[in-house]
Amino acid sequence: MMNVRDFALVAFTILSQMAVGSMIVLGIVHFFAIRKAGMQEADRLSDQILPAIGIVLGAALVVSLTHLGSPLNAPLAILKLSTSWLSREILFTVSFFVVGAIFSFMQWRSLSSFAVRNLVAWIAAILGLMQVFSMSHIYMISTEPAWNSIATPISFFTTAFLLGSLAIGTAMVLNYNINRRKDQKCAEVQCGLLRDSLRWISIAAIVLLGVEVVLAPLYVTSLAAGATTAAESASLMLNQYGLIFAFRLVLVFIGAGILGIFIYRNALSPGREKILGNLTYSAFALVFIAELMGRFLFYATHIRLGLF
Amino acid sequence: MSSQLAFHVDLSSCTGCKACQMACIDKNDLELGQRWRRVYEFTGGDWVKMGNAYINSVFTYFTSVSCQHCEDPICVNVCPSGAMHKREDGIVLVDTQKCLGCRYCEWACPYGSPQYNPTLGKMGKCNFCYDLIDAGGKPACVEACPMRALDFGPLDEMVARYGDLRDPAPLPISSITHPSVIFTPHRNTYPAGSNEGQIANKEEV
């Protein structure tokens, strides 16, 4: 069931969803950082992280070309916006990238007013959400019972925000370490912002873990109760890929759940930045691997209706 | 659509010789692994108790399947570039100039009709031998059938002549894409989704 090209799609979908989630989480963090510590400190917190999101999304787009038989024809993929969700997804991905890059540039050079930059950021965020929405609709076609359910958009958005939160947490820790080395004075305010953000990020991760842990068994049982092809998908998931299915849930539980609790506790008081950083890195790494495994299963267990 | 072209397959006379499949490979010069027309062998049966005796109810029939040139083709609906399109006479074609080789149509089509050609990096599929038809001829598969089990013509004409069976097992239910292929049933033909038999020649299709 699994082709080599599907691994390119695993990487593309995970990375692009992570980019969308990161953009939105960073926007929320920035919003609260302004209220707490003012514009300058908020910008110091997030400005370095913006281009990193662009790099992740750019990498995702390059990887997506590798699953095409004729990559030179890729620009033609937006010709059927009226009927094809794949066309729409590609349009939204590219426009999210372009508007995000414009916002990043404006933020870097402090171009225009705060209100205008804020508007551009909002547009980028909405384009990103549309991208994840249309990506999930690509798979929701009547001939793919394992994909054609509400579980697809739920799991795509959960992945976006779970990975987005932990990726931003990780980027903030890196950013904090760089800032501290450059300028000791800023460290105290930045450290406060970092701890506040990580507390909320750990709460978000635990909530989203809850969504995944509830969704996985519901999804498999509803597949198993479905028509022949759907039931075959469920059996693939539990038998042939049962180990990966279980291991993935264990990893995301440790990463987002157990480490999430440790991140929360260590972010309560100052002086534990080193361990807080290491916990955040580990949580992100574990959840990233778990999400890759989950997406691998998504492609490995679908069975199309009809003749082969 | 009155101008929809359609195939007719007579399951009651098909012997499963695969001359249509070979003629298709020959006419279109298909590479190894490309099978735009395939013949599925649907087989079933069991021992059935009748009075004091057990008799068998074994059956097999052959279903020649190519692109169904559907009235509502899901491959055309999902294609992002418009490479997969429907001609005025209802033939579903791939414009290889526009094809990306993303293989989305392959995920969508319930008949396994669009097939990826790794050499070209493009999709290929049954084109109804439109070059032969445009010149007043017949598709290679129809011409080759020694049992005269294959026919083609306008859909309404085929329906008037042969009835309206479009989804004998092992084909999927016709309501998904409204295929333009009419079947004459074999005496053991079961409807789509039937568990009475199974495809016996999976390695051949």
3D architecture notes:
The complex is a heterodimer of chains A (308) and B (205). With 308 residues, chain A is mainly α. Chain A has a single domain (4-300), classed as Formate dehydrogenase/DMSO reductase domain (Formate dehydrogenase/DMSO reductase fold). Chain A has helices at 4-37, 39-46, 49-65, 85-109, 114-139, 151-182, 187-224, 228-240, 242-266, 273-300. In chain A, helix 3 packs antiparallel against helix 4 (85-109) and helix 6 packs antiparallel against helix 10 (273-300). Chain B has 205 residues and is α+β, with helices and mostly antiparallel strands. Chain B has a domain at 5-66 and 128-204: 2-Layer Sandwich (Alpha-Beta Plaits), CATH 3.30.70.20. Chain B is globular, with a radius of gyration of 18 Å. Chain B starts with a strand and ends in a 6-residue tail after the last strand. The model of chain B has no long low-confidence stretch (mean pLDDT 95). The chains are: A mainly alpha (308), B alpha+beta (205). Chain A binds chain B through residues 5, 67-71, 73-74, 76-80, 83-87, 90, 138, 141-144, 228, 304-308, and chain B through 38, 40, 65, 74, 76-83, 98-104, 107-112, 116-118, 120-123, 170-172, 176, 193, 202, 205.
Relevant terms:
heterodimer, A: 308 residues, mainly alpha, Formate dehydrogenase/DMSO reductase fold, 80% helix, 0% strand, globular, B: 205 residues, alpha+beta, Alpha-Beta Plaits, three-stranded antiparallel beta sheet, 6 helices, 18% helix, 25% strand
How many individual helices of chain B?
6
Flag low-confidence runs of chain A: none
What is the CATH topology assignment of chain A?
Formate dehydrogenase/DMSO reductase fold
The percent of residues in helical segments of chain A reads: over 70%
Largest sheet of chain B: 3 strands, mixed
Tell me what portion of residues of chain A adopts beta-strand conformation.
Answer: under 5%
Subunit organisation of the chains: heterodimer
Spatial extent as radius of gyration of chain A: 20 Å
| Distance, first to last CA of chain A | 12 Å
